[in-house]
Amino acid sequence: MDAADIVASVLVLGIIIVSLLSNVVVLICFLYNPEIRRQVPGLFILNLTFCNLLLSVSNMPLTLVGLITTGHPGGSGFCQVVGFLDTFLTTNSMLSMAALSIDRWVAVVFPLSYHSRIRHRDAVIALGYTWIHSLCFSTVATCRSWVGYHHLYASCTLCNVRAKGAGTQFIIFTVALHSLTFLLTLIVMCVTYLKVLKVARFHCKRIDVITMQTLVLLVDIHPSVRQKCLDEQKRRRLRATKKISTFIGTFVVCFSPYVITRIVELFLPGPISPHWGVLSKCLAYSKAASDPFVYSLLRHQYRKTCSLLANKVLKRSPLNSSSLRMENNGGRSNANSNTTNNTQPQTNNTQPQTNNTQPQTNNIQPQTNKPVGQ
């Protein structure tokens, strides 16, 4: 092993560890929180997590073994099964990202009719399409024996050496596979997220107009408060842009080198550097490690669920619940003090009423005595 193989092995090992831990955390949050399970995007995230986990335990370790041993890991039959999973899981994860982008587009552009447009039945139909689409391409590649160990990527995947006899058929298959998965997903993500960004900027402009009108009316406002409002206004403009650039940017950076290398490999007569092939494959693997953070763990619901699970494991009560208990106890003590204070005047007020009845009885006695004297 040379220095480049050692660096690539360490990189693949780090990707495996991060991918396993992060995707397992997402799966635990999905199973623990019923609110996440009720949401329609949770089905797409669950499917994406399933693909990433299976890729982390099947394809990535074999690539690591291939880098360490610089040879063929396992037999040809086992490698064909792993190559089938490589094509299926990569295609399925890409289409899941396209489904998530469509869901966000409908949620932002049509917020009032979102629940009628996107239902669990629609999500199941979309997931069924992704599975059928992925199974068709991976099954065709396996049945035609186009899957095997590729030394350029040090992994079991589509192999040009095994498809030499196919010629034009393998070229058409490879171009169709990447056009209907990578290119289609990229177009869908760009169109939907740009629509989301347009709506977000429109709402930001409306909020900015209201903020500026408020700052103009409030003449006596402190300069520090005014500056905080302006800073929040800038952060609000950049927040949507950062999120959308993260969604599209991670997809392009992770998958485009691998897909471009695949297409160039079909038409390039000379060999490609194996270091570049391994690097492009590692970038494709890194998408499985970044997806949990991009789509799940940075959201408020998942962060809240993770904090609740951490507090439960560490057997400590969260700060919010303790503060709520203190507030409730304080409210109860105040209520008890108010009730005791209110009851005391009532008892005091009843005493004069009883005293006032005595003169009335005394006044009655002379009236009754006068007829008796007469």
From TrEMBL:
Compositionally biased tracts (Polar residues): 319-337
Membrane topology: Multi-pass membrane protein
Major subcellular site: membrane
One GO molecular-function entry: G protein-coupled receptor activity
CDD domains recorded: 7tmA_GPR26_GPR78-like (cd15219)
Stored Pfam families: 7tm_1
Region annotated Disordered, chain positions: 319-374
Keywords: Cell membrane, Disulfide bond, G-protein coupled receptor, Membrane, Receptor, Transducer, Transmembrane, Transmembrane helix
Span of domain G-protein coupled receptors family 1 profile: 22-295
GO cellular component assignments: plasma membrane
PANTHER family hit by this protein: G-PROTEIN COUPLED RECEPTOR, G-PROTEIN COUPLED RECEPTOR 26
Purpose of the protein: Orphan receptor. Displays a significant level of constitutive activity. Its effect is mediated by G(s)-alpha protein that stimulate adenylate cyclase, resulting in an elevation of intracellular cAMP.
Protein name per its UniProtKB record: G-protein coupled receptor 26
Source lineage: Eukaryota, Metazoa, Chordata, Craniata, Vertebrata
Gene: GPR26
